[in-house]
Amino acid sequence: MAFRAEKLRCHWIPSGLVEFLLHFYVHIAVNASVSRSVLLRYLIARAKQRVNWVLKVYPYPATVTAFQLGCGSLMIITMWAFNLYEKPKLSRSQFAAILPLALAHTMGNILTNVSLGKVSVSFTHTIKAMEPFFTVLFASLYFGQRPSLWIVGSLVPIVGGVALASFTEASFNWIGFSTAMASNVTNQSRNVLSKNFMLNQEEALENINLFSVITIISFILLAPTAILIDGFKFSPSFFQSAANQGLNVRELCVRALLAGFCFHSYQQVSYMILQMVNPVTHAVGNCVKRVVVIISSVIFFQTPISPMNSLGTAVALAGVFLYSRAKRIKPMPTQTS
User: Fold this and answer.
1) Closest by CA position to 262, among listed 72, 98, 114
2) Staple 171 to which of 3, 119, 258, 270, CB 3.0 to 4.6 Å?
3) What average pLDDT does the chain have?
């Protein structure tokens, strides 16, 4: 495997920003509000792009995903060990209910990382803008929740814009496209089922502990699987060989650790928001977040985009705005004779 010694075309994130994110994260955990949580997700999503650099120079998505989950698991164990948050006591029925969520979480993240390693960041996140469509579909299939015609209509430009952006994407390949689309299926299945779990009064866990348990189970499931898929791509001898081929191992490790921290923090806040809103609104919020990710990734990686690609992205994001307006339209009361 030939490694690419790439240099990132941007400055490091200032340490003050990292401290700000940490303090803001703690503040939200104590006194959460949707607007502040969404702002934090935008900031963390911006920093989380560093995982894309890691995947460019270290093309082992299963190992990278396992490392990210390992970073999250370490943060969670530290939180519980120092009594920063009360450790949950899981019953067998709770574990049985959470296991499918962990499986979906594992698959969703590894599929996303595979896509990010195959196509541009902006293209992956344009495909993932279809999340609201899958959320509406699964909410209807699993729980019989039928959306209004206004909401369904607002999803059409999202799907159409994604299709237009896909057909005009310079970095398009079927592996990147299909894994991004498959991650929509797994992630939105996880979110819909997680929301149902949160609403179950008998089995419910608070969002921080629910996501913590999901993360640890996912790491336990993925760690041996990553070794089977990628092999031992983290031994001293392997990194020595990679360094001889031009890979900056120290820079890779530092950026991987930062990406792991941002990865866990971003997804933890995502679950905090999921407890406050319904899954479709949550998915649309993700799409709004992708505006920042797509635009910053074009600047961050200097990704070339065509006018038609830009049009497709704009149409998809316009659909997100229409959805936000459609959500405010209240159904007409039925006339009773």
Assistant:
1) 72
2) 119
3) 76
Q: Exposed/middle/buried for 217, CB within 10 Å: 0-12, 13-18, 19+? A: buried
Query: Residue 134's Cα: distance from chain center in Å?
Result: 15
**Each residue of 213-262: pLDDT tens digit?**
999 999 999 999 999 988 888 888 888 888 888 888 888 888 888 888 88
Query: What span, in angstroms and rounded, lies between the C-alpha atoms of 289 and 1?
Result: 35
Q: Give the Cα separation of 143 and 69 in Å (integer).
A: 30
Say which residues have a Cβ less than 8 Å from residue 21's Cβ, sequence separation at least 6.
40, 43, 44, 47, 265
The C-alpha atoms of residue 64 and residue 66 are separated, in whole angstroms, by: 5
pTM for the structure as a whole: 0.74
Rounded-to-integer distance, Cα 214 and Cα 197, Å: 12
- Calculate the dihedral angle through the C-alpha atoms of 118, 121, 124, 130, rounding to the nearest 10 degrees: 180
